[in-house]
Amino acid sequence: MSNVRIYPAAGTWVVRANGAVIGESTRALELLQRDFPFVIYFPRDDIAAAVLDASDRPFICDDRGAGVHFHISSPEGVIQNAAYSLTEPTAEAAQLREYLAFDAGKVTVERV
């Protein structure tokens, strides 16, 4: 059985950084990985690119692949390494290549 399962995320999803909406999507994907909590991935086109600044911190996951982190600019300041994108996904996670996910401990991701 695969360690990574990806499904369309039902409904409309938003991501907020310090209360400010930085993205909204009806095309989000839900990733289930082993026993971890689910992660919502947003299409890059549905996120305000102006708030993202590439970080030097790499993203590495045995199941999903490698990528990069992003800092998010918000009205209250920069949120360090709050988003990430897979630039070299595994075969199992290939459909996530043009998507962004967020650290739920640093920003709010919710279905509306």
Task: Set out the fold topology.
Layout: E1 4-8, E2 13-17, E3 20-25, E4 29-33, E5 39-43, E6 52-61, E7 65-74, E8 77-89, E9 99-102, E10 108-111
Structural class: mainly beta
How far do the termini sit from each other?
32 Å
The level 1 CATH classification is Mainly Beta
CATH homologous superfamily caption: Domain of unknown function (DUF427)
Q: How do the helices and strands follow one another from N- to C-terminus?
A: EEEEEEEEEE
Which fold does the CATH topology refer to?
Answer: Metal Binding Protein, Guanine Nucleotide Exchange Factor, Chain A
Number of folding domains?
A: 1
- Shape designation: globular
Residue fraction in strands: over 45%
The CATH architecture can be given as Beta Complex
DSSP helical segment count: 0
Overall pLDDT, averaged? 95
Number of strands: 10
Largest sheet: 7 strands, antiparallel
C-alpha Rg, in Å? 13 Å
Show unreliable segments: none
Largest sheet: spatial strand order = 1-4-5-9-8-7-6
Helix content: under 10%
